[in-house]
Amino acid sequence: MTTFSDDIQYWRQTCQNKLGASEETPFGEGTLVYKVGGKMFALLRLSEPLSINLKCDPQEAMILRDSFSEVTPGYHMNKKHWNTVDLSTELDNELIKGWIDDSYDLVCKTHRLL
Fold this sequence. Notes:
Blueprint: H1 4-16, E1 21-24, E2 31-36, E3 39-45, E4 51-55, H2 58-67, E5 71-73, E6 82-86, H3 93-110
Antiparallel strand pairs: 1-2, 2-3, 3-4, 4-6, 5-6
Organism: Reinekea thalattae
InterPro entries: YjbR, YjbR-like_sf, YjbR/MT2646/Rv2570-like
Pfam families: YjbR
């Protein structure tokens, strides 16, 4: 069984491993923001329950929200383009990592990065 700290480190590493990714704390120490080319692709909230905000295609965002109770409109974000994923649930980590990849790719494509 992993600890809360282990979970934070796992998701930090997942986001930091993206090519050109940087980690910042513009909203205070309670939220880690991951950017590529100066644009956000993930926000990791460090309080319990652990959650991550991810950019998403608007149509896909609605499908994910309808399909997974752990996925909700982006907390403090543009709800059309962002989802919040509750990381304290039994969702498969590989599925979530795929959503992180999608968010990163969407930001890179939209802003012609990398």
